[in-house]
User: Fold this.
Amino acid sequence: MPSQQPQISDLPAITTYLTGHNDTGKAIVEQTRPANWTVYDNKEMAFNVAYTTSQFPANLNDNTDIKTHDKVTSSGKLGLVNPHGTVCRTVDFAPGFECMMHRTQSLDYGIVIAGEIELVLDSGERQLMKPGDIAVQRATMHSWKNPSESKWARMTFVLQDCEKLVVGGEVLGEDHGRGTEGLPMSGN
Assistant:
């Protein structure tokens, strides 16, 4: 079962800044939120969900998006993907750790922030990614490996719900793989 914990890596702390408007329509930083980490796989991987949306386009009026985000994240039912919406998540990977082979039913942008990450596909193909590199993950079966023996790695992902993917007449749905006990299926 995953648990909320302080940051486990030695990488810089993360803060999310939510902007908004004052009464005159000028932009302001409305809220500042420190990272809230969920730890998986024997403390070798941790998630911080910075933000979610639950509809497209997002409704920013009267802070509807913020209220909905808070409701979704406090429900305990957020999977890897938020049906009909998006998830912005940072993931820290321990040195030498390879996460579970998995598939999300989503279109994801994965950006390497710190360290190096190896994208591993179920075909056996591997791609080393360095800071600033971006993977456009299109509902494929994959895992992420931190090839360093001594340094943590960090990626930020933006996942957006997608139509069901059909390949060769078969629907390829979400598959979490090992190590994610307690993480709900997305239901999309």
Remarks:
- The first helix runs from residue 64 to 74.
- The two ends are 22 Å apart (CA to CA).
